[in-house]
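Cross-check.
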Amino acid sequence: MALKSTIFKAELAVADIDRHYYHDHALTIARHPSETDERMMVRVIAFALCADERLEFGKGLSDTDEPDLWQKDYGGEIKTWVEVGLPDERRLLRAAGRAERVVVVAYGGAAASLWWKGVANKLTRLANLTVLHLPAEGTRALADLVQRSMRLQIAIQEGNVLVTSDDGAVEIQPATWRLAAN
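Predicted model, tokenized:
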């Protein structure tokens, strides 16, 4: 019998001062059996960084045709495609052809740096691609905030991310490895 996803609930209050976006979201997060707490929380950070009323979790690890997060317009066209981790360049090329904007939120310390060195030149023609990197110490600390039911406040200012909950606070300073031209 296949293992089932574990369901987490998060009340997420996003205050993105950089984009003037202030909104509360009630998230239901399905954590795949092979997914770590760290990766799941990076998906939550990715949600906050790209937050929009129409942004939603995709099937991610369960379906290779869907991203971790995406935003579609009312006609079903993909506006934003968000990948978490270290995706294959072919996947990003395909995503860039399907979506107006593609965002990668990479994490994993030295492995992420090696991944970027290997794919950066292959992705130069993708004008709609943004690649952000979250430092390992920050993403590991996020895993300590995981509860089956979470209340998280995420403030984003000048690119810095502050995550607070009843269990503590984590500050993350994402690095922009590539910024989309559009």
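Residues 6-178 form a domain with the Restriction endonuclease-like alpha-beta roll fold fold (CATH 3.10.640.10). Residues 32 and 62 are 7 Å apart (CA to CA). Passed to J.P. for a second look.
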